[in-house]
Amino acid sequence: MRDLSLHLLDLAQNSITAGASLVTVGLFLEENGMLTMRLEDDGKGMDKELLERVTSPFATTRTTRKVGLGIPMMKENAEKAGGSFSLESEVGKGTVLTATLDTKNIDCLPLGDLSGTLLSLMLTNPLHPDFLFEGKSPKGEDTFDTREVRAALGSDIPFNEPSVAAWLKEALDEVINSIFGGVLI
Amino acid sequence: MKSLADLEAIRAKTLENINMRKDENAARVVIGMATCGIAAGARPVMLAFMDEIQKRNLQHVTVSQTGCIGMCRYEPMLDVIMPGEEKVTYIHVKPEMVPRIVSEHIVNGHPVEEYTIGAAKD
Fold this sequence. Notes:
CATH class of chain A: Alpha Beta
Mean pLDDT of chain B: 90
Low-confidence stretches of chain B: none
CATH architecture of chain A: 2-Layer Sandwich
Shape of chain B: globular
Helix content of chain B: 25-40%
CATH superfamily of chain B: Glutaredoxin
Number of strands of chain B: 4
Oligomer: heterodimer
């Protein structure tokens, strides 16, 4: 993975597969350069045994191969950038993934096209689930909630309708801009 | 500043198009977006398709994603399924290849042979 936004796109897929109805993405950048990425869902959760096994590259839910690299690669990229990785989960309640990274560390991945990731998630899951994005940095903070969008648009119109997609793209760019001030770390 | 009020106008405009996209004569683009696909660059490809469809105002096309197709070395991969025809699998797709796939295959019905898995050398 070349950047954090791609990790996010990949990891959010796990939440969607777990049957989440709301996926919450949080990105918080502190004054001291520590970045926290948080992914929370209300999907089916994992039991203790799976939770312990899931950071291994040899645990996966897919059937085409015996390896699953999404979570182990995120863990490695967080730890080598002077950060940490944790997963909490409860069966029937959902899962919270937290990765911290020191953006001043030379091995820290760039944030990447965050707006593109959020847009991709919404376009490839046009009717369900909902996404809540919360971001904060020393330059500002903002949120984006697809439940508000659906309330205004009507829940029968999918997000991948071209005119809706164009609106989402501009709205997301504005939100990311107001959080990180245009220049991404 | 984008406001939620814009969405009401969009709603009115799109309601009629939606039924067209649901019909069985719609072309389907299915992009592999598992870890392997994403790492290889599936996201800009998917966004390029959405962009091109909007630019050309195509009504009978849907773009969706799937998981790992099992041939990770060929990612980013995608299938184009035209109504009533066999699927065509494109490999190593880059965003700059998308306009050609849309115009030659989806609009005019001729697959871009040189981008397909049939043209793979290994």
